[in-house]
Design a protein that fits this description.
The chain is an alpha+beta fold. The protein contains 4 helices and 13 strands. It has one domain: tt1808, chain A (Alpha-Beta Complex). The chain is 26% helix and 32% strand. The strands form 4 sheets. Strands 4-7-8-9-10-11 form a 6-stranded mixed β-sheet, sandwiched between helices. It has a 3-stranded antiparallel β-sheet with strand order 1-3-2, with no helix packed on it.
Length: 179
């Protein structure tokens, strides 16, 4: 059961940054789901791939950065499991990081795919060019980019027009779960 607490943005921003990490959604503080080892392994594998990409194309990346989204319902702060900002995209803002080029969510055991899809759609609707939803159970990555709204990639290469030069072999990526 997710426990939500109503508070102001200033009260949220004054909270200590400790686990469980907290997001601020429509005036409520919501704890992020507790990940398992598969989640950690997959986030690490993507982080390594993005690090290689950044060495060639610049940009910035990192896990669980606090990202500020301006919405019709006010400011919202989300913490994608992993984010990447292309070199030409500003990362830091006055109160939190700006929306990234890529936001990645890895489904944790107690999260539904539909709730994660909605999160990816939220990102896309608020300035993120690409969102990937990684599902350890089905070993698939759902892509939210352009006209793609959750197209599942289960084999071949994962790539994006917004990250030229980056391609991730799906079998190799999910192979980290076999070690």
């Amino acid at each position: 059961m997710v426990v939500r607490h109503r508070m102001t943005v200033d009260e949220y921003l004054a909270l200590p940054e400790e686990k469980p990490y907290l997001e601020y959604i429509c005036g409520e503080v919501v704890p992020k789901a507790v990940p398992d080892y598969r989640h950690a392994d997959l986030v690490h594998a993507l982080d390594v791939a993005l690090d290689r990409h950044m060495r060639l194309h610049d940009g910035k990346a990192g896990p669980e950065g606090r990202v500020l989204f301006h919405t019709a319902l006010g400011e919202q702060f989300r913490l994608p499991d992993l984010s990447y900002w292309a070199a030409e995209r500003p990362r830091l803002g006055a109160r939190a990081m700006q929306p990234p080029t890529l936001a990645v969510e890895v489904r944790s055991p107690d999260e539904s795919l539909e709730s994660q899809r909605e999160k990816c759609r939220f990102y896309r609707g608020h300035g993120v060019e690409v969102a990937w939803l990684v599902d350890p159970d089905s070993r698939s990555v759902e892509v939210f980019e352009g006209d793609r709204d959750g197209d599942a990639v289960t084999a071949g290469l994962l790539a994006s027009a917004h990250l030229p030069g980056l391609s991730i072999d799906i079998a190799e990526f999910f192979g980290v779960l076999d070690n």
